[in-house]
Amino acid sequence: MADAWELVASTEHSVRDFETAQQGIRPAERITADFRRQMDWLLRPRFLWVHGAERLPDLKRYMQGIAERIRRIGQQPLARELERLDLFERVYLPWHRALPEHADDLRWMRYGYLLEEYRLSVFAPAIPVKGRVSEKRLNAAFEAL
């Protein structure tokens, strides 16, 4: 558990450093907003209590994914990252907008974790994904909600 929290702290620091470095760069505002939304959801109050310790390995992969994404952004044109963000936001934003109405529904939380797996496949493909996830599967799962 200590390793997971150390990774969380390190990732939070990396995200803040990225935000500081990108301050004033208009195209990067969407990327930093996405990082903030992701961190806020992953580290929401009582998330471990609600979902249990079995989510710690997933949390570790998600933090590794964020670090990998930041590394990749530094190696590629920002436009490429924005293209990936467009792809991800097609399935993410409808859920994010509707979530406040369903915050206590575990089905909506499970869908959120599916989105995190998809996020890994889009932004950090070097990090292993749990299960099979695609835009098509996410759309079908969202319709079922």
Spatial gap, N to C terminus: 32 Å
Q: What is the rounded Rg?
A: 15 Å
Mean pLDDT level: 92
SSE order, one letter for each helix or strand: HHHHHHH
**Which of globular, elongated, flat, extended, rod-shaped describes the shape?**
globular
- Low-confidence runs (pLDDT<50, min 5 residues)? none
Number of helices: 7
User: What percentage of residues falls in helices of 4 or more residues?
Assistant: over 70%
Got a strand count? 0
Summing up helix and strand content along with how strands pair, one would put the structural category as mainly alpha
Beta-strand percent range: under 5%
Let me know the largest β-sheet. none
Molecular structure report:
- The chain is an all-alpha fold.
- 74% of the residues lie in helices and 0% in strands.
- It has seven helices and no strands.
- It has helices at 2-22, 28-42, 47-51, 56-73, 78-98, 106-123, 135-144.
- Helix 1 packs parallel to helix 4 (56-73) and helix 2 crosses helix 5.
